User: What shape does this take?
Amino acid sequence: MSMLLRSWQAVAAVILTVLALIRLPMFGDGATTPPGNATLAIVVILALIGAFSALLVSKRQAVAAILFVTAHAGAWLLFSALLGNEGQARAPFFLLIAALWLLAWACVTQLSALRPESREAATLVRLLIPAIFGAWVLILWEAATRGFGIPFILLPPPSAIGARIANSLPVLAADVRQTIFKAVLFGYVVGSGAGFVVAILADRVDFLRRGLLPIGNFVSALPIIGIAPIMVIWFGFDWQSKAAVVIIMTFFPMLVNTVAGLTAAGHMERDLMRTYASNYWQTLFKLRLPAAMPFIFNALKINSTLALIGAIVAEFFGTPIVGMGFRISTEIGRLNLDMVWAEIAVAALAGSVFYGAVALAERATTFWHPSIRGG
Amino acid sequence: MNTVIQADKLNLTFQTNDGPVHALSDIDLAIEKGEFVSLIGPSGCGKTTLLRVIADLEKPTGGTITVNGMTPEEARLKRAYGYVFQAAALFPWRTIADNIALPLEVMGLSGDERRKRISDNLELVDLAGFGKKYPWQLSGGMQQRASIARALAVQPDMLLMDEPFGALDEIVRDHLNEQLLKLWAATQKTVVFVTHSIPEAVFLSTRIVVMSPRPGRVHDVIDCDLGSERPLDIRETPEFLKIAHRVREGLRAGHAYDE
Assistant: This one.
């Protein structure tokens, strides 16, 4: 009994595998290339090996390794069996996928409980866990779209999106150059920089603080993307109009956050600088700006996502024949959904890299803040 | 002897939402060079406010005050004093050494001079070897010592200390009191020290100013010369207890109408 308690996922996987065997065959009558019994047998054996290793083997590393191999090899075999039989899958196919998914789950559970001694191994495990998790999101998506034969227009399988990315690299690269390296980066740097400079000015000049800040709060609550068509009229079809939208979108969050950050330094610290007969700029650079850094990085992180949204959506309103937003809006019209998804995937990747870079810079700069040093 | 701080009929009234608060009322006080003067009293008696007026962190609303024969503002701009706050107020993004360098950077001293003063003053407060640590890696007592080193690095004639050990536990406080006394003997600086601890005031001071609240005023000034050698045991001697008793009487009298 205690053996069964070691991994409920493994027990459930065995039950699902047995159910799959009872409900054979795996594919309906319309299947053009039904797989041989050998493939089915190997998948079942893999699932059972994985499940019983989780129940019988006590060494965690070994269990995790066996589960990793059996779950993914099994899934790979099932997908190769599905080839040519899209939309014909019956219950056993999904039961086996579910069983293998449970094994992958058990694998992640084992990995999470590992306490590796070397730092390299710890890093590997830390990266492996989300990788397996993400891989199974894609595997289940693939199984659902191809197994049920979901229309391509509704949701293409990830393999088709991946193939489209691989085949369209030059187009995607040109779009990334146009949208991210021109509109987003330029707009982000200029918009955030201007917000920062104006915040310092507002700190120095009283009427700016009283006049501009309420407006800043008001404008940063507006859906600024609505001005995109106007920017196209003002600055033309090319990337400059998109950069203008990004500048306006990123300006106010930086302004509002920097002004808030400049008040973050404590009274005691300000008095301290005063006892040193420190002038305005010395106090600004030695005390108030360092104290404002958590706020400024907050704005930089908000702006990294805002800039990407702004540039892509702004391209919907008129653009030369290149750019991520342009590609999405035209390919959706031609029902090339795989290309739309490919652009979305690239945008997600670019956004994550962008955000990650800002977050890394934040960790390096505000290492002293309790939220980062942890205490 | 020459007078470094001279206050005559000093008044300060804060305008608050609940009406004016008379924080300082007709304060007359003269502090000589090299003295260790404690300001003691219950909260609300204006002892911290008086220290802040000396430091030009508050402006008096009446009377006159001179610091080194100048207005407090002139004295502040000449960096006549080092101020030690209730909390260490070290900047968390700077190492201990860089925190001590902060006033020296503001003063525009050269790198060599900064390095020399940093190591000298870390030595003085017994923190040699901790220069590369960050403030949040040190204990509260060590942080407060670092903040004293920072105040001393300016090489002021005068130290203004606002309950510097108030947040520390008794053992650490005793230890730092001893160290402060040694430091004072070694450097011959004038110290104005705000506290609400009677033993601390009697142990450290050459003169104790007892203040009372509402309005904040000087109730009694007690000479307190226990000699330059003061081990912690001195707190059990009759002389010590006699002075402590008089301070307590003064505090009670000033406070009596409250009860």
